[in-house]
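Notebook entry, structure prediction.
Reason for the run: the old model in the group folder had no record of what sequence produced it. Starting over properly, with the input documented here first.
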Amino acid sequence: MELLFGAEAQRLEKQIEELKANAVANQRSLVDFQKRNNILMTGPESNTVTDRLTQMNQQVTDAEADRILKEARYRLANTGNPELVAAVVPSTTLQTLRVQEAELKASLAKLDAKFGSGYPKVRESRDQLKRLDEAVFHPSQSRPAP
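New structure, fully documented this time:
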């Protein structure tokens, strides 16, 4: 009976040694493969190739999100509605024109109430307001005042 256990123990020890030798050989093969293919292990689940792929994937995702945002802005700009464009892409120019418009309308209301619609300053203010509206709603068609 002891001979049986002794023989079995020797057989198991031999198998363990073979498995260890196999594991060492496989590890060497892996290291050789990594060297041949310029793969540097940076962690148990990571290497330079997967790190680069992860980084490149993030860059692609960022570029795609940027493209979508710019495409949305382009489509809004093509609507011709300055209010929509201003909501998405704030513009100090549009804000400045709106302030000028409000000031001009207030001035026009005072002049019109005081002097009437035939007064030259009232007509001039209406022309300025018209040019200002064209600058806001049709910026490519508006021309600077002489």
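Summary: The helical segments are 2-36, 48-79, 82-88, 92-115, 120-137.
The old model has been moved to the deprecated folder.
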